């Protein structure tokens, strides 16, 4: 966990996709569901906020952004319904 915190923590305090990719990724919310880090960890909260702010489109949330085009015009997108 210490290694990941040093190499994959975005300057804003949230987890990022990889050391070389600062983008948020919805998959980064799975580890807290399983308990590590805790769901109330500030990094988890910051990651959730980033995912909501950057990956949500109406009632859908995308795993990650493929590029900067508007959501409906992207290729290879996957999403899950959010309630």
Keywords:
three-stranded antiparallel sheet, 83 residues, 29% helix, globular, alpha+beta
Task: Characterise the protein shown here.
By secondary structure, the chain is an alpha+beta fold. Helix content is 29%, strand content 10%. The chain has three helices and three strands, in the order H-H-H-E-E-E. Strands 1-2-3 form a three-stranded antiparallel β-sheet. The relative contact order is 0.16.
Radius of gyration: 13 Å
Strand line-up in the sheet with most strands: 1-2-3
Classify the beta-strand content into a percent band.
5-15%
Shape: globular
Quote the average pLDDT. Answer: 85
Distance between the termini: 31 Å
N to C succession of SSEs: HHHEEE
Unreliably modeled segments: none
Helical fraction: 25-40%
- Biggest sheet descriptor: 3 strands, antiparallel
**Number of E-state strands:** 3
Secondary structure class reads: alpha+beta
How many H/I helices? 3
Q: Can you lay out the helices and strands and say which pair or pack?
A:
Layout: H1 2-7, H2 30-33, H3 42-55, E1 56-57, E2 60-62, E3 79-81
Antiparallel strand pairs: 1-2, 2-3
At a glance:
This protein has 83 residues and is α+β, with helices and mostly antiparallel strands. The protein is 29% helix and 10% strand. It has a three-stranded antiparallel β-sheet with strand order 1-2-3.
């Amino acid at each position: 966990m210490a290694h990941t915190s040093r190499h994959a923590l975005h300057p804003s305090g949230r987890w990022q996709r990889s050391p070389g990719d600062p983008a948020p990724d919805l998959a980064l919310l799975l580890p807290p569901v399983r308990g590590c880090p805790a769901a109330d960890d500030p990094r988890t909260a910051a990651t959730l906020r980033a995912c909501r702010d950057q990956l949500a489109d109406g009632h859908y949330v995308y795993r990650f952004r493929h590029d900067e085009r508007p959501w409906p015009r992207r290729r290879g997108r996957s999403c899950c319904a959010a309630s």
